[in-house]
Amino acid sequence: MATETPTAAAAPAHKPPVIGLALGSGSARGWAHLGVIEGLEEIGVQPQVVAGTSIGALVGAVYVSGQLAEFSEWVQKLSSRDVFNLLDFTLSGGMVKGQKLFGFFEEVHKNPLIESLDRRYCSVATDMKSGREIWITKGPILPAARASCAIPGIFSPVKFEDRWMLDGGLVNPVPVSAARALGADIVIAVNLNAQLVGAHVSRAAQVESDIAEPVPKVERSFWQRAGEYFTSSTSDSPSFFDVVASSVNIMQDRITRSRMAGDPPEVTLVPMLEDFALMDFHRAREAIREGRRLVEANADAIRAWAGISSPAVRPPANTGAAPDGVAPAAAQSK
Fold it and tell me: Could you tell me which residue ranges the PNPLA domain spans (predicted)?
């Protein structure tokens, strides 16, 4: 009796790698995350895992909940006046509460449970009391993202499940480790911190002088006078905002280098936005354009890691020359 030869159809199908996206902290530069995600979708790469810190947590939340296109359209329409009007100034825990901004998000965007989504999601925050790194992977997604967005001295801490949370960038500015823990085989990281040292907090913090008519000194509001005090800077005396911004930037840059040296992603994209201040949220078009440019410039390498490129294309090594905008892992520890 003749025996049948096994056919190719009997062989197990190749299982594609799980693609993870680690979206880093960096305030207004985070709009580049929108361009990166749009670019990845266009080249056929759809991350199944998204981990975000600070602005990365917010953009990641919008993406996994299926609201990226609407959100991208909205932020590109923001003017400096719009940004200023969304800031609820305070002297309690920071300069801005953030309730007005995130209250607006909750009014116009869906707020699904994280565990109900098709993609896995994690928001990285910092427990103010213990200093521990907190990964939020359950519950309503917008509060989870908000818990990660509390830059010390700028945005007030957020109470989340009876604990005060600070910005996730204090402990894990580019959450590669969180993406891997959620099951990612290949991690594409977006590092906004490589150029942050030396950047100021905001031209938006000084937007009052740009959007309002000059008023007599006696008629100026408390916040107009306070704004001048906190933002005025000279070569002999840096402003309050400059000191806070530089301190946060230096810290996040050093932490990013250390964390990514120990757990390097397969691809690191570094947006070239050196002239962005931390709160230049009205410059979304520029940042989104840069994110898309990065993906386009490195499309072959990204496809290769994702397992969807032609056999002729090989993933780049982690040392040596890197494609445009991609930082080799070895460079992260320098």
Answer: 21-180
